[in-house]
Amino acid sequence: MTEPTPVAAETPMVPAGTDSPLPRHRDVVSDVVNDLVNDDDWDGDDSFLADGPQQPESVDEHLDLSVAAVVVAHDGLEWLPIVVAAIRGQERPVQRLIVVDTGSRDGGPDLLARELPATDVVTMPRTTSFADAVTAGVARAGAHDFLWLLHDDSAPRTDALLHLVDAAVRSGAAVIGPKVLGWSDRTHLLEIGVSIGLGGRRETGLERGERDQGQHDRDADVLAVGSAGMLVRSEVWHGLDGFDAQFPLFREDVDFGWRANAAGYRVTIAPRAVVHHAEAATRGLRRADAVGGHPQRADRLHAMRIVLANCTTWQLPLVAVGLVLLCIVRTLTLLVGKDVKSAREEAQALRLLVTHPGLVRDARAARSAARIVPAAEVAPLIAPPWAPVRTAIDAVSALVGSSGAGTERPSVMVETGPGSDDAMEALVDGGPSVVGRLMRRRGSIVLVFLLTLSLLAGRGIIGAGRAQGGALLPAPGGFADLWSSFLAAWHPVSVGSSLPASPATALLAALSIAFAGSASAVVDALLILAVPMSFVSAHLSMRGVVRNPWVKIWASLSYALIPALTVSVRDGRVGTVVLAVLFPPLVRAAVHLIGKGAAPAGDRAPWATGLLLAAAGAFAPIVWVVAAVCAVVAGMTIIRDKATRLAMVIAL
Length: 652
Hints:
Blueprint: H1 26-36, E1 67-73, H2 80-88, E2 96-102, H3 108-115, E3 121-124, H4 130-141, E4 146-151, E5 154-156, H5 160-171, E6 175-182, E7 189-191, E8 195-196, E9 202-203, E10 220-221, E11 231-233, H6 234-239, H7 252-262, E12 267-277, H8 295-310, H9 316-336, H10 340-355, H11 357-370, H12 375-378, H13 388-400, H14 421-427, H15 434-439, H16 442-457, H17 479-487, H18 503-512, H19 519-528, H20 530-541, H21 549-560, H22 563-571, H23 574-593, H24 605-619, H25 622-637, H26 642-651
Helix pairs in contact: 1-2, 8-10, 8-11, 9-10, 16-20, 17-18, 18-19, 20-21, 20-23, 22-23, 23-24, 24-25, 24-26
């Protein structure tokens, strides 16, 4: 890559020794931090300002290269003073600092008016996107060699810029990112480069709650780096037209990194540069006005559009179909889990994706024109399909172990008002590793034991393709064959049949997406994991009903080992296996429907019961007969009010 010609900064910062509107040196910055945060919220440790473990040879090195810092602020008064002070306190100073305020209502504009020259503050409407705000800040900054992008809740250590510029010069990289740690828990490792899977999931390659012990402190090329602390060469930024305005908030950094890699530029990590990030928007500590207050919807929509816009031509049809089906499955799963709000956001994201195909088409055309390197060179940087498996294991372990001695941790994307550092401590994952949490939870230990036994017992059929469901038609080879079999008007069974295919075929087709389209792999997984899945199903269904954890584990284990299930696994009866897994949540949903269980009946109960009933009935049609008989008996003996009877009819 050709090195850019150094240019002078348009408005240099005030030199040391003169009256500066904000503190510049480390000792003054530490005083600002300690004044802003009281003892209850901050323990006095200013380690986020400490020098890194290794320094370039000289602080004066590369000072001929100009750097403009651009900070986007949106209701960030809780963090903004610390962030600005930390930027002004850099050992390798920036030549200009621009703050773009997008309609803050928390006193942030007053702070900026007092502390910064008017020419260094850009004010924009409250609904301005992050991409547009950065573009405006870059335009105001003028000509510089590098642009340093920061959020109003991301505080760099005093040597962060020094290491970033040094890494850029040494490696010739165009985009360089820091190691990102937590704000309140300053050893919690949040990010060391990011990637994305073809399913749209953002991947960091880190364990949940992983601590920073220097285990990732090595320079490495990555697909993208986060926008909190990103250093990018100005010529590359302008050559790629900056962030895509199609992504107003969330995922814009992943798209930019993918485009930079495709254009032949290096995107790398400088782990000696450290930024502490509160992740306020992601964690719901403030309203995401740039996306209309719908962060979940925007995040999911942007993820799907980025994958569709950047994937190869031959991948596009498969990825498009997979994303649509994945959205449908996620929506149904959320409905079954009674998270109607999240299900609505997922469905809305899918609707916006399908109804605006022109945005993806235009994005693909723009990226095709800018692409230089073959897609095969970028492919190793994209997260593999099995990357979400670890996250799924984490989620199951957290759910199963909730009754043990662990601490419940809320998910991200919660929607609350602005929070304090105490709130951040509750939201940031600062616990032990996954293995540590597993070993401290009784239910998780039993689950690991069952998984181990199941995998050992089923090792002979893994990949052999011999397992078939007794009530199912012989499983075709893959997703396309399964779907064709389901839609076909005639089936080559015995002398031929025109009867409709089993609904289970469609469900198997949907499940096969997670197994690279292999129907036999789905059947293998259902049979091998039948006992562990039944244990988890029973354990979760007793939450709030059985309080004693030992009784809950004993009952769940007894259910998972009933002879009917183990014999069905031996005989390859997939229908019975699926019924065994779905039966506990189906009973729980039905009890809630008639309002006699642990929770009162609600408007979501009929839909949850109906979805579970449909899934179970697809594999075991006898369920419909049993459900109808139970409904009639309940209607004549237990249910008295018309509303509950109507809900029961809806469920059926």
